[in-house]
Amino acid sequence: MTRRRGRGEDGIALIVVLWGLALLGALAAGIATHGRGETRLVSDLRDAAESRHMADAGIALALRDLLDPRTADDVDRTGAPRDYRIDGTPITVQVSDEAGRIDLNEAPGELLRGLFMTVAPDRAANLAAAVQDWRDGDDDRRTGGAEAIDYRRLGRDGEPANAPFQRVEELARVRGMDAALFARVAPLVTVHSRLDGLDPDVASAATLAAIPGLSETVAGRLSRDRRQDSADLVAFSRFFRHSPGRAFTIAASVTGPGGRVFRRSALVWLTFQPDAPYRLLARHDG
Predict the structure, then answer these.
(1) What is the pLDDT of residues 132-178, one digit of tens each?
(2) Do domains 48-99+244-285 and 107-176 have the same CATH topology?
(3) In whole angstroms, what is the distance from residue 105 CA to residue 284 CA?
(4) Are the C-beta atoms of residues 116 and 132 closer than 8 Å to each other?
(5) Alpha-carbon gap, residue 206 to 227, rounded angstroms
(6) What does the H/E/C string look like for the chain?
(7) Domains in the chain: boundaries
(8) Which residues contact 105 (CB under 8 A, 6 or more apart)?
(9) Fewer CB in a 10 Å sphere around the end CB: N or C, the chain?
(10) Model-level pTM?
(11) CATH number assigned to the domain covering 48-99+244-285
(12) Which family does this protein fall into (predicted)?
């Protein structure tokens, strides 16, 4: 004989069905969300790739203008922004001549002290001495400087190279330098100008202010007015050199469809050789 189901059993069955439907709904929503997430990820990757290629194109256009005798003199080399357009997409490019920065390998102690006076007056003399001890080939400590034994006493990783700086980032390892100080100094220095001074025609106001005795007011005036007959240029001429026009940092930024800004920079050395007109020394994103 077939047994009739009671209301309780019918209620339980209904609850099970409802729970099953809810579970299926949740799974469907999860799959849809996952699908949308994957779609967005693909879209973001595509936008990033397009922005990266556009930034590379902007750098290539600036390089073309630097290498072409017909356009080279028209390129602003002070880091001022310039806009290019490719297929309607704006690309902001900045060209900075490394001769506008202070060369860690060539700058005399007086100029190094002036540099550090602008960011850490109480440590300027010691930092300048430590930089000179890092780059020279001996183990003789300058007053306030540091040689290998001093780094070992401090428990530092690594010792002075007793050789020229290969990269600006090495400066972060010099005794007396910390992360905050390095972040302020790094934009003002280079290892590629090969000059014991700087070119006032392309130097920023912040870099010009590192020249001993040159005030921030005068530095600002020089960065705005690049006249060769300026009395200020004559007064501080012993620190000024003419750029050989070889080493440049070219930075490009592109705003993608989603509003994200992609930045890339390239440090290049111009050789002007037909088969290889330039060498890429470094590249950075961000």
Answers:
(1) 999 999 999 999 999 999 998 887 767 889 999 999 999 999 999 99
(2) no
(3) 22
(4) no
(5) 18
(6) CCCCCCHHHHHHHHHHHHHHHHHHHHHHHHHHHHHHHHHHHHHHHHHHHHHHHHHHHHHHHHHHHHHCCCCHHHCCCEEEEEEEEECCEEEEEEEEEHHHCEECCCCCHHHHHHHHHCCCHHHHHHHHHHHHHHHCCCCCCCCCCCCHHHHHHCCCCCCCCCCCCCCHHHHHHCCCCCHHHHHHHHHHEECCCCCCCECCCCCCHHHHCCCCCCCHHHHHHHHHCCCCCCHHHHHCHHHECCCCCCEEEEEEEEECCCCCEEEEEEEEEECCCCCCCEEEEEEEEC
(7) 48-99+244-285, 107-176
(8) 135, 164, 165, 191, 194
(9) N
(10) 0.81
(11) 3.30.1300.30
(12) Belongs to the GSP K family.
Q: In this structure, what token pair is assigned to residue 139?
A: 């183990």
Residue position matching structure tokens 């961000």: 286
Reading the block at residue 240, the tokens are 């000024």
The residue type found at 166 is Q
Place of tokens 């002070």: 78
Angle between helices 124-135 and 109-117 (to 10 degrees): 140
The tokens for 37 are 């997430």
